[in-house]
């Protein structure tokens, strides 16, 4: 996935109309020309950013241009990624040097002697070719992956007449209710060619078709149409049925740092006003301007989910800031794809998903050495400043040092709710921190950003939907008429039905998951670069439900309700919501913190999980959350399998005498009883 910026020559599409930016006539006004009509329009930078943030504007690239073979895909094998990373090392060694073969050869050889990979040092011609592809793609690492699907002879081997005869043979023999085989279809095609050759001179004889030609021609036919012709429309409709009724830097964005920290502040529940615990804050800061690019606040412990949420906000313009927080006075202009991302050695930063996402956007990942906090000192200092400004001195503070607490109990003095905390943090960043002169730069970060970078120099992802696919967690699944099964839930859509009808009734696909919301998944087409969104059939249960919450519901249903069906998960969800609303006020602080994580973003949106009661036909008996079932809110281990307990029948072996005398005695007893 490449990146683009609003600058001269860039093309984008709005409402199926493609434009090309021509010139900047004022500081904030661009002229754009329609490609078809050559009509000139004027757009402001703000309107372009708003259209992009709302996914109405998409940058036009080779990947999105119709009738052009997709250049890159979203998903590649692990081996292909490793090869691309290795090639990238050689490219970076010569990226700023002229493409001189002798120079490249010497540098390549020196690099190979250090890393000894691959088995043989690559040639200078290959390295130069990798460099050119890497630069032309906007430093997208996927350009270094071999595109074997484009290899081969592009000139047809057979005349058009031969191909027409093969098509007739397929229609006559293969696409018939008699269900002819490939061999019988090939034989019929050969007969047609032989009859034609009898009428042609020797110099114009047609080439005899091969089995591979017939097979490849059949494979181009849509799976639904082929099955319909061979088995009938009724059988085809049944086979392809689908279930849809279920519920040091020199410029901005050159380098950025990201890290997590728990806030030194106890937060209370919006409804009950009881203390929940300390939320986690994930922050990404621009190294040059000290502007904050993105944040994420929640009770989810540091993970790839929190990192991806923070990076997504960092990449995209904050067009909806005033709608979410009307009291904020200033704009939050800092956004874009950074060149380098500095991280520590936390497990959440050592993942293939993060590497693939960053490398796909042309970003470098720099890992800080162990116990060297100053390697990313800017983010460390900002987190300290934010904690002192937001947490310390306010009711509910936990202090940064345990010896400073004395007799102060933060859980008893906490008054700030979760939703208010999010507004306070955003307001402090935008209206205080960004507007106050920085101690090092001597300029406010917002003014530093405004004066050091132009909007047309800010790189953003071409397609937000594809960005979500890249940042999502990857898994392999089977697509059938039931849809895609994930964690016991099923997902399907009309687009997936069309995909199956075209390529087959059962397909192996790769999906991308946002583990904070199981209501929807992203499906990657195995036959191109298309992506599809599929919603959970049981939407009343899965919408806005995280995977951690789903595991809690499944465990609750298995242990407390003794049920193992999706309906029981919905019932468990209702029961847990009832426990949260009515009884967790009597529990200890540890339980409340788990409840806060279970509620998640519902605390900010003030959505009550008890709204799912409309989908339950009966009201279960209330369950008390006691010491024995507090563990239900513990996360399930990754390898845990919930199995339905089966009552085993006990069979007692009985010996029966089958001798002639015994049988005679039994018959006599029966006659006597009669």
UniProtKB/TrEMBL annotation:
<dbReference type="InterPro" id="IPR012337">
    <property type="entry name" value="RNaseH-like_sf"/>
</dbReference>
<feature type="region of interest" description="Disordered">
    <location>
        <begin position="655"/>
        <end position="674"/>
    </location>
</feature>
<dbReference type="InterPro" id="IPR015378">
    <property type="entry name" value="Transposase-like_Mu_C"/>
</dbReference>
<protein>
    <submittedName>
        <fullName>DDE-type integrase/transposase/recombinase</fullName>
    </submittedName>
</protein>
<feature type="domain" description="Integrase catalytic">
    <location>
        <begin position="248"/>
        <end position="453"/>
    </location>
</feature>
<dbReference type="Pfam" id="PF09299">
    <property type="entry name" value="Mu-transpos_C"/>
</dbReference>
<dbReference type="InterPro" id="IPR001584">
    <property type="entry name" value="Integrase_cat-core"/>
</dbReference>
<dbReference type="InterPro" id="IPR036397">
    <property type="entry name" value="RNaseH_sf"/>
</dbReference>
């Amino acid at each position: 996935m490449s990146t683009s910026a609003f600058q001269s020559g860039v093309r984008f599409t709005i409402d199926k109309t493609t434009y090309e930016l021509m010139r900047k006539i004022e500081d904030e006004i661009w002229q754009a020309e329609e490609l078809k009509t050559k009509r000139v329009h004027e757009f402001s930078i703000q309107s372009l950013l708003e259209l992009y943030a709302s996914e109405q504007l998409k940058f036009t690239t080779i990947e999105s241009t119709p009738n052009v073979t997709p250049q890159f895909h979203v998903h590649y094998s692990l081996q292909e990624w490793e090869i691309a990373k290795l090639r990238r090392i050689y490219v970076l060694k010569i990226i700023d040097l002229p493409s001189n073969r002798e120079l490249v050869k010497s540098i390549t050889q020196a690099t190979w002697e250090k890393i000894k990979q691959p088995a043989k040092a690559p040639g200078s011609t290959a390295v130069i070719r990798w460099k050119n592809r890497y630069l032309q793609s906007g430093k997208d690492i996927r350009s270094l992956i071999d595109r074997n699907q484009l290899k081969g002879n592009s000139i047809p081997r057979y005349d058009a007449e031969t191909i027409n005869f093969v098509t007739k043979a397929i229609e006559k023999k293969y696409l018939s209710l008699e269900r002819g085989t490939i061999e019988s279809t090939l034989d019929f095609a050969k007969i047609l060619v032989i009859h034609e050759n009898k009428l042609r001179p020797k110099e114009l004889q047609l080439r005899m078709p091969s089995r591979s030609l017939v097979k490849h021609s059949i494979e181009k036919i849509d799976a639904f149409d082929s099955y319909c012709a061979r088995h009938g429309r009724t059988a085809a409709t049944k086979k392809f049925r689908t279930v849809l009724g279920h519920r040091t830097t020199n410029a901005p964005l050159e380098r950025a740092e990201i890290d997590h920290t728990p806030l030194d502040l106890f937060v209370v529940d919006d409804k009950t006003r009881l203390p929940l615990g300390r939320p986690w804050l994930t922050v990404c800061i621009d190294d040059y301007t000290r502007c904050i690019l993105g944040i994420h606040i929640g009770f989810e412990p540091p993970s790839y989910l929190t990192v991806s949420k923070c990076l997504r906000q960092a990449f995209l313009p904050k067009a909806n800031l005033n709608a979410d927080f009307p009291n904020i006075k200033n704009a939050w202009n800092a956004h874009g794809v950074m060149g380098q991302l500095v991280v520590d050695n936390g497990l959440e930063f050592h993942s293939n998903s993060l590497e693939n996402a960053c490398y796909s956007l042309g970003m470098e990942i720099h890992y800080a050495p162990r116990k060297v906090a100053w390697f990313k000192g800017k983010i460390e200092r900002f987190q300290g400043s934010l904690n002192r400004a937001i947490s310390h001195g306010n009711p509910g503070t936990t202090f940064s040092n345990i010896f400073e607490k004395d007799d102060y109990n933060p859980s008893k003095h906490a008054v700030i709710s979760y939703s208010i905390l999010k507004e306070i943090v955003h307001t402090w960043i935008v209206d205080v921190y960004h507007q106050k002169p920085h101690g090092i730069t001597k300029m406010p970060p917002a003014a530093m950003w405004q004066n050091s970078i132009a909007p047309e120099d800010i790189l953003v992802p071409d397609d937000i939907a594809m960005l979500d696919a890249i940042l999502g967690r990857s898994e392999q699944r089977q697509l059938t008429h039931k849809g895609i099964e994930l964690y016991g839930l099923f997902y399907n859509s009309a687009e997936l039905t069309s995909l199956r009808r075209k390529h087959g009734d059962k397909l192996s696909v790769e999906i991308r998951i946002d583990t904070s919301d199981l209501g929807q998944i992203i499906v990657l087409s195995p036959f191109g670069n298309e992506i599809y969104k599929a919603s959970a059939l049981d939407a009343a249960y899965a919408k806005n439900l995280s995977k951690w919450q789903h595991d809690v519901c499944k465990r609750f249903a298995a242990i407390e309700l003794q049920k193992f069906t999706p309906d029981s998960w919905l019932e468990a969800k209702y029961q847990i919501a009832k426990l949260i609303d009515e009884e967790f006020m009597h529990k200890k602080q540890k339980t409340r913190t788990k409840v806060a994580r279970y509620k998640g973003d519902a605390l900010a949106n003030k959505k009550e999980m008890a709204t799912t009661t409309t989908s339950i036909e009966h009201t279960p008996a209330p369950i008390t959350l006691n010491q024995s079932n507090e563990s239900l809110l513990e996360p399930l281990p990754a390898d845990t399998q919930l199995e339905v307990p089966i009552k085993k029948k006990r069979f007692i072996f009985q010996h029966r005498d089958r001798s002639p005398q015994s049988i005679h005695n039994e018959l006599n007893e029966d006659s006597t009883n009669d």
